[in-house]
Write a structure and sequence with these properties.
Elements (H helix, E strand, L loop, with lengths): L2 H18 L1 H12 L3 H25 L5 H21 L3 H28 L6 H30 L2 H21 L13 H5 L5 H22 L1 H8 L7 H25 L5 H18 L3 H29 L7 H25 L6 H25 L3
Helix pairs in contact: 1-5, 1-6, 1-7, 2-3, 2-6, 3-5, 3-14, 4-5, 4-7, 5-6, 5-14, 6-7, 6-11, 6-13, 9-13, 9-14, 9-15, 11-13, 12-13, 12-15, 13-14, 14-15
Length: 384
């Protein structure tokens, strides 16, 4: 894999840390800013909504701009938003910084996914995607637990400062190492031509399943800290370790999915999806048993990110006639789920259904994803 691709992964590590670190900081933010835990959880949804809107908008605006120029702009805005977020004492201002950071993150990831697949052979999109998304999973392994530890020792603002500091060297590295050139190599189709790719039922089905799978992941992940402390009975000091276990599983899942997706993962996805549904249900049932719950966390990280990463690669292959917007389609789908999941989980918590309820919602979302995938397979098997 090209060295520049790993530098993009460094930036994605900073961005993934920002997106996921709230899983360990939500209770502290709620206390400090005087809001409820479900309200603080909307910071995750706000970030996701910003990414849903930002990915296609940024990709459309930057279709004919040099990739390096777009990546530097997006990463610079992302860094600045975290400085403001670290300084504010107003929840609404913090909410606004999450949206701005998400818009920048979305643009970076949309352009980065497209640029990454252009740096490698046509049949290596899965491996290129795995390197880029590996930054996200490393964020789960190191960045998110590190942010939780910083939050416990120095306050939640220190985690925002840390993200800004990690983004700075990534900004310099991209300026020096990412090659010049447009986000999509070769002739760029018209925007209308690329957007018409969304009319294809096959692409829409994959995008829908990706959104549901990521919704299930974020529904539980956002409220994993209160699940660990209130249901599993572990102290707050255990939260970073549990988050690291989830991240370790996620890293293994993305790494394995990178090669699998390039070889054709359609026969494996139904089995992995069913296993993920069973895993969320098992966690909901076993959350009161500390040993069983902790053992399930890395398995669920592996399955959730393995399936999610494979679906991203399937989107890029399905969107072959949308070379500059394929990454935006995938980014938007993932973040529709990332916005939906915390909202549904927060509604379950706010409705008094208990701290296990977000995990049950995750299982329900996976059941719906299975039905959508099944319908897609049935339509594909129908004679023309």
């Amino acid at each position: 894999m090209p060295f520049a691709l790993h530098l993009l992964g460094l930036a994605v590590f900073a961005q993934g840390t920002s997106e996921f670190m709230l899983a360990g900081l939500v209770p502290d933010i709620a206390r400090d800013l005087g809001v409820s835990v479900p309200t603080a959880g909307t910071l995750t949804s706000a970030f996701a909504v910003g990414m849903v809107v930002g990915a296609p908008a940024a990709a459309l605006l930057g279709r004919r701009r040099p990739s390096r120029q777009s990546l530097l702009l997006f990463l610079g805005v992302f860094l600045a938003a975290h400085v403001v977020g670290a300084l504010t004492s107003d929840f609404l201002v913090l909410l606004a910084t999450r949206v701005v950071a998400a818009l920048a993150n979305a643009g970076f990831l949309a352009v980065g996914l497209t640029a990454a697949t252009r740096m490698v052979a046509p049949d290596a999109k899965g491996r290129a995607t795995a390197v880029l998304l590996g930054g996200t999973t490393l964020a789960c392994v190191a960045g998110v637990p590190g942010g939780a530890v910083l939050g416990q020792l120095l306050g939640w603002r220190s985690a925002f400062w840390a993200v800004a500091l990690v983004s700075a060297p990534a900004l310099v590295a991209i300026a020096r190492s990412v090659p010049r050139g447009p986000a999509a190599g070769g002739p760029v189709p018209g925007a209308g031509t690329e957007l018409r790719a969304l009319r294809r039922p096959g692409l829409l089905s994959v995008l829908c399943v990706a959104a549901l799978v990521n919704g299930a992941t974020f529904c539980t992940f956002t409220y994993l800290a209160p699940l660990v402390t209130q249901v599993c009975g572990l102290g707050a000091g255990w939260v970073p370790g549990v988050l690291a276990l989830f991240g370790a599983g996620a890293f293994a899942g993305v790494t394995a999915a990178g090669r699998l997706a390039d070889r054709g993962a359609r026969p494996v996805l139904p089995v992995a999806g069913a296993a993920l549904f069973a895993g969320w249900a098992a966690l909901a049932l076993a959350a009161g048993r500390t040993d069983a719950a902790v053992a399930l966390v890395p398995v669920l990280g592996l399955l959730a990110f393995g399936v999610g990463s494979t679906l991203v690669t399937r989107v890029l292959y399905e969107a072959v006639d949308a070379p500059s917007l394929g990454g935006a389609f995938a980014t938007s789908a993932l973040n529709v789920g990332a916005a939906l999941g915390p909202v549904l989980g927060g509604a379950a918590l706010g409705g008094g259904l208990g701290h296990r309820s977000p995990v049950w919602v995750s299982a329900l979302l996976m059941a719906v994803a299975g039905l959508v995938a099944r319908c897609r397979t049935h339509r594909a098997e129908q004679p023309a």
